[in-house]
Amino acid sequence: MSETTVVHLLRHGEVHNPEGVLYGRLPEFHLSDNGRNMAKAVAGWFAGHDVVALYSSPLERAQETAEPISEAFGLPIHLDERLVEAGNRLQGKIVNRDALRDPRTWRYLYNPVLPSWGEPYHEIRRRMVAQIRAVRAEARGREAVCVSHQLPIWITRRASEGRRLWHRPDRRQCALASVTSLTFEHDRLVSVSYTEPAAGLIVDSGPPGA
């Protein structure tokens, strides 16, 4: 008898960030008005789904993205550190072409495979896989939503598809308020799908790793 469980990885919506700071794990970066509309659009997309568990990164932008889903399904938002944004030594800086020409930045960029500028890809995979395994057990036979960030979601997808973890950041398929869905039959991953419920609201996907 088939037992299908779906874990949806939801990237947060647009953040109010007029200065273009790489905010990483910094506090007090909240959704913009457009980001809140994205969150509402995603909650509407989940209508009719059998969502019984809702988890979020502890960062404000993720919690705020989860709120409309919490209201729609009457579910508490459980905070889980394993869903947090990837650590990045450049957080708090404005990372553009001028910054990348600065020799003080080069010491962080010597190894893109690790990567040298932040949390190792294999560590991101480890914590995300552990979180998904726990949530899958809780929502067995039904659906769960986990609100996270671009890089942790993308690394999870690459790992799920058997691809190498290092990659070009500009080729990530993980737009703002997008949903990457992992479908399991019993404990076996059988498919990975991707959708953009708020595509019509996207103006700029933001800096890599946002």
Automatic annotation (TrEMBL):
Gene3D superfamilies found in the cross-reference section: Phosphoglycerate mutase-like
A GO term from the CC aspect: cytoplasm
Signal sequence residues: none
MF terms in GO: phosphatase activity
Pfam family, one: His_Phos_1
InterPro entries: His_Pase_superF_clade-1 (IPR013078), His_PPase_superfam (IPR029033), PGM_Phosphatase (IPR050275)
Family annotation (PANTHER family): BROAD-SPECIFICITY PHOSPHATASE YOR283W-RELATED, PHOSPHOGLYCERATE MUTASE
Protein name per the record: Broad specificity phosphatase PhoE
